Protein backbone atom coordinates (compact mmCIF):
# COMPACT_ATOMS: atom_id res chain seq x y z
CA UNK A 1 0.00 0.00 0.00
CA UNK A 2 1.15 3.51 -0.81
CA UNK A 3 0.48 5.87 2.11
CA UNK A 4 -1.86 3.23 3.63
CA UNK A 5 -4.15 3.32 0.60
CA UNK A 6 -5.75 0.06 -0.45
CA UNK A 7 -4.86 -1.41 -3.83
CA UNK A 8 -8.08 -2.42 -5.57
CA UNK A 9 -6.66 -3.76 -8.86
CA UNK A 10 -3.59 -3.88 -11.09
CA UNK A 11 -3.39 -2.75 -14.70
CA UNK A 12 -0.36 -4.49 -16.12
CA UNK A 13 2.10 -4.00 -13.24
CA UNK A 14 0.56 -0.74 -12.02
CA UNK A 15 -1.31 -0.80 -8.71
CA UNK A 16 -4.68 0.97 -8.81
CA UNK A 17 -5.62 2.60 -5.52
CA UNK A 18 -9.11 2.64 -4.10
CA UNK A 19 -11.03 5.94 -4.07
CA UNK A 20 -14.41 4.86 -2.70
CA UNK A 21 -16.85 7.74 -2.13
CA UNK A 22 -19.21 6.90 0.74
CA UNK A 23 -22.86 7.83 1.16
CA UNK A 24 -23.65 8.94 -2.38
CA UNK A 25 -27.17 10.38 -2.68
CA UNK A 26 -29.74 8.03 -4.21
CA UNK A 27 -33.17 8.90 -5.62
CA UNK A 28 -35.22 5.70 -5.28
CA UNK A 29 -37.85 7.16 -7.64
CA UNK A 30 -35.40 6.57 -10.51
CA UNK A 31 -35.10 2.81 -9.88
CA UNK A 32 -37.65 1.77 -12.53
CA UNK A 33 -36.09 4.14 -15.09
CA UNK A 34 -32.62 2.79 -14.34
CA UNK A 35 -33.83 -0.78 -14.84
CA UNK A 36 -35.59 0.19 -18.10
CA UNK A 37 -32.40 1.80 -19.42
CA UNK A 38 -30.42 -1.37 -18.65
CA UNK A 39 -32.96 -3.48 -20.51
CA UNK A 40 -33.20 -1.06 -23.47
CA UNK A 41 -29.66 -1.92 -24.46
CA UNK A 42 -28.21 1.08 -26.30
CA UNK A 43 -25.75 -0.56 -28.73
CA UNK A 44 -22.60 1.32 -27.68
CA UNK A 45 -23.37 0.70 -24.00
CA UNK A 46 -23.90 -3.02 -24.63
CA UNK A 47 -20.62 -3.22 -26.58
CA UNK A 48 -18.79 -1.47 -23.74
CA UNK A 49 -20.54 -3.59 -21.09
CA UNK A 50 -19.38 -6.78 -22.80
CA UNK A 51 -15.79 -5.55 -22.29
CA UNK A 52 -16.13 -4.69 -18.60
CA UNK A 53 -18.81 -6.83 -16.92
CA UNK A 54 -17.98 -9.57 -14.42
CA UNK A 55 -14.53 -8.11 -13.77
CA UNK A 56 -13.33 -8.73 -17.35
CA UNK A 57 -11.55 -5.35 -17.36
CA UNK A 58 -8.66 -5.91 -14.93
CA UNK A 59 -11.03 -7.38 -12.32
CA UNK A 60 -12.57 -3.93 -11.80
CA UNK A 61 -16.28 -4.01 -10.95
CA UNK A 62 -18.52 -1.77 -13.08
CA UNK A 63 -22.18 -0.96 -12.35
CA UNK A 64 -24.46 -0.17 -15.27
CA UNK A 65 -27.12 2.58 -15.21
CA UNK A 66 -26.32 3.54 -11.62
CA UNK A 67 -28.42 6.13 -9.77
CA UNK A 68 -26.41 8.94 -8.18
CA UNK A 69 -28.57 11.69 -6.71
CA UNK A 70 -31.18 12.69 -9.29
CA UNK A 71 -29.14 11.34 -12.19
CA UNK A 72 -28.55 7.96 -13.80
CA UNK A 73 -24.99 7.46 -15.02
CA UNK A 74 -24.08 4.99 -17.77
CA UNK A 75 -21.38 3.16 -15.79
CA UNK A 76 -19.97 3.55 -12.31
CA UNK A 77 -16.85 2.06 -10.69
CA UNK A 78 -17.58 2.39 -6.99
CA UNK A 79 -14.11 1.34 -5.81
CA UNK A 80 -12.64 4.25 -7.80
CA UNK A 81 -15.42 6.83 -7.56
CA UNK A 82 -15.35 6.95 -11.37
CA UNK A 83 -18.31 7.61 -13.67
CA UNK A 84 -17.94 6.48 -17.29
CA UNK A 85 -20.31 8.19 -19.70
CA UNK A 86 -20.85 7.15 -23.30
CA UNK A 87 -21.98 10.20 -25.24
CA UNK A 88 -24.22 9.48 -28.20
CA UNK A 89 -27.01 11.31 -29.98
CA UNK A 90 -29.05 11.52 -26.78
CA UNK A 91 -26.52 14.12 -25.60
CA UNK A 92 -26.94 16.36 -28.65
CA UNK A 93 -28.18 19.85 -27.75
CA UNK A 94 -27.89 19.03 -24.04
CA UNK A 95 -24.50 20.57 -23.32
CA UNK A 96 -25.82 22.77 -20.51
CA UNK A 97 -27.63 19.85 -18.83
CA UNK A 98 -24.58 17.59 -19.24
CA UNK A 99 -22.30 20.25 -17.71
CA UNK A 100 -24.66 20.76 -14.74
CA UNK A 101 -24.77 16.99 -14.23
CA UNK A 102 -21.00 16.64 -14.48
CA UNK A 103 -20.44 19.55 -12.07
CA UNK A 104 -22.79 17.87 -9.58
CA UNK A 105 -20.95 14.53 -9.84
CA UNK A 106 -17.58 16.24 -9.40
CA UNK A 107 -18.92 18.10 -6.35
CA UNK A 108 -19.51 14.68 -4.76
CA UNK A 109 -15.82 13.85 -5.23
CA UNK A 110 -16.36 11.68 -8.31
CA UNK A 111 -14.37 11.77 -11.54
CA UNK A 112 -16.15 11.63 -14.91
CA UNK A 113 -14.65 9.96 -17.99
CA UNK A 114 -16.43 10.51 -21.31
CA UNK A 115 -16.30 8.28 -24.39
CA UNK A 116 -18.03 8.95 -27.68
CA UNK A 117 -20.64 6.48 -28.88
CA UNK A 118 -19.03 6.35 -32.34
CA UNK A 119 -15.60 5.51 -30.91
CA UNK A 120 -17.04 2.61 -28.91
CA UNK A 121 -18.64 1.26 -32.09
CA UNK A 122 -15.67 1.89 -34.41
CA UNK A 123 -12.48 2.01 -32.32
CA UNK A 124 -13.16 -0.17 -29.27
CA UNK A 125 -9.61 -1.45 -28.85
CA UNK A 126 -8.19 2.07 -28.53
CA UNK A 127 -11.10 3.19 -26.33
CA UNK A 128 -10.28 0.43 -23.84
CA UNK A 129 -6.53 1.20 -23.96
CA UNK A 130 -7.26 4.90 -23.32
CA UNK A 131 -9.48 3.98 -20.36
CA UNK A 132 -6.64 1.84 -18.97
CA UNK A 133 -4.24 4.79 -19.30
CA UNK A 134 -6.70 7.18 -17.66
CA UNK A 135 -7.23 4.87 -14.68
CA UNK A 136 -3.47 4.30 -14.26
CA UNK A 137 -2.80 8.06 -14.38
CA UNK A 138 -5.67 9.05 -12.04
CA UNK A 139 -5.58 6.16 -9.55
CA UNK A 140 -2.12 4.64 -9.93
CA UNK A 141 -0.02 6.80 -7.65
CA UNK A 142 2.34 9.68 -8.26
CA UNK A 143 5.11 8.19 -10.41
CA UNK A 144 2.86 5.92 -12.44
CA UNK A 145 2.67 6.20 -16.21
CA UNK A 146 1.78 3.73 -18.91
Summarize the structure.
The protein is of the alpha+beta class and 146 residues long.
Order of helices and strands: EEHHEEEHEHH
Overall mean pLDDT stands at 92
Number of structural domains: 1
How many strands, what sense, and barrel or not for the largest sheet? 4 strands, mixed
Number of strands: 6
Helix and strand composition category: alpha+beta
- Major sheet strand order: 3-4-5-6
User: How much helical structure, as a percent, in the residues?
Assistant: 25-40%
The CATH superfamily label reads VSR Endonuclease
**CATH architecture assignment name:** 3-Layer(aba) Sandwich
Shape: globular
DSSP strand content: 15-25%
Please give the count of helices: 5
What's the CATH topology label?
Answer: Endonuclease, Chain A
Our measurement of the CA-to-CA distance between the termini, rounded to an integer number of angstroms, reads 19 Å
Taking Cα atoms only, what radius of gyration do you get, to the nearest Å? 15 Å
Organism: Flavobacterium caseinilyticum
Domain DUF559: 29-133
InterPro entries: DUF559, Endonuclease_DUF559_bact, Restrct_endonuc-II-like
Protein name: DUF559 domain-containing protein
Structural features, described:
The protein has 146 residues and is of the alpha+beta class. It has one domain (23-139): Endonuclease, Chain A, CATH 3.40.960. Helices cover 38% and strands 23% of the residues. The protein has helices at 31-40, 43-52, 95-107, 117-122, 124-139; strands spanning 7-11, 14-17, 63-68, 71-77, 82-87, 111-116. A hairpin with a 4-residue loop joins strand 4 (71-77) and strand 5 (82-87). The longest helix is centred in the C-terminal third of the chain and has 16 residues, at 124-139. The radius of gyration is 15 Å and the shape is globular. It starts with 6 loop residues before the first strand and ends in a 7-residue tail after the last helix. This is DUF559 domain-containing protein.
Amino acid sequence: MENNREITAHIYTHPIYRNFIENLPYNAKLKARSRALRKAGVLSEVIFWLQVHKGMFWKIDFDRQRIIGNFIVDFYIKTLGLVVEIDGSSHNDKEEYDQKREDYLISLGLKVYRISDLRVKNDLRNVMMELEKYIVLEYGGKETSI
